[in-house]
Write a structure and sequence with these properties.
With about 140 residues, the protein is mainly beta. It has strands at about 5-10, 15, 25-30, 35, 40, 45-50, 55, 60, 65, 70, 75-80, 85, 90, 95, 100, 105-110, 115, 120, 125, 130. It has a domain at about 40-130: UDP N-Acetylglucosamine Acyltransferase, domain 1 (3 Solenoid), CATH 2.160.10.
C-alpha cells in the first residue's frame, strides 16, 4: 500500500500518488474486492479481501488468499494456494512459495524467500533477503 502519497477516489478505481510522484491506479479485484494496481497480475481464482493491497508488478497465483489489511509490495510473488494473513506485509520482490502461510501481522522483508508449505507465525519479522523453509507456527498461533 503506498505510503505518504495522496489518494484520489474515482468511479471504478482508486489512484495513489506514490513517494516518487507517480500516480498509480488500483482496481478492486473481482474475487474479494481488494485493491490491485493495474500492472500487477492476480489470478482470477485468487481471493484478495477488501482492505488488502497488491502493488505494481506483483503476482498472486491461483487459489492464493490475501486477507484484509495485507500488503503485497512491488514485484512480490505469492504462490499458488498461499495465504497472506490479516495486516501482514510481503516486501518488495519477496517470494512466498506455494501453499505457504504468512500469518497475521507478520512482516516479510524485501527479496526474502518463504519456501513451499512454510508457515510463519503471527508477528514474525523476516529479514530482507532471508530464505525460510519449513518453519511451523507455534501451537498458540
Amino acid at each position: 500500500m503506498p505510503e505518504g502519497g495522496k489518494m484520489r477516489r474515482k468511479r471504478n478505481y482508486v489512484e495513489f500518488e506514490d513517494d516518487s510522484g507517480i500516480t498509480r491506479r488500483y482496481v478492486p479485484h473481482g474475487h474479494g474486492g481488494g485493491l490491485v494496481e493495474t500492472s500487477a497480475k492476480v489470478h482470477p481464482s485468487a481471493y484478495v479481501r477488501a482492505g488488502a493491497y497488491v502493488d505494481p508488478g506483483a503476482r498472486v497465483d491461483p487459489d492464493a488468499h490475501i486477507d484484509a489489511g495485507a500488503w503485497v509490495d512491488y514485484g512480490a510473488v505469492i504462490g499458488a494456494g498461499a495465504r497472506v494473513g490479516e495486516n501482514a506485509h510481503v516486501g518488495a520482490r519477496a517470494v512466498v512459495g506455494n501453499r505457504a502461510v504468512v500469518a497475521a501481522y507478520a512482516k516479510v522483508g524485501a527479496e526474502a524467500r518463504i519456501g513451499e508449505g512454510t508457515r510463519l507465525s503471527a508477528d514474525d519479522v523476516i529479514a530482507p533477503g532471508s530464505l525460510i523453509s519449513q518453519r511451523r507456527m507455534s501451537p498458540a498461533a
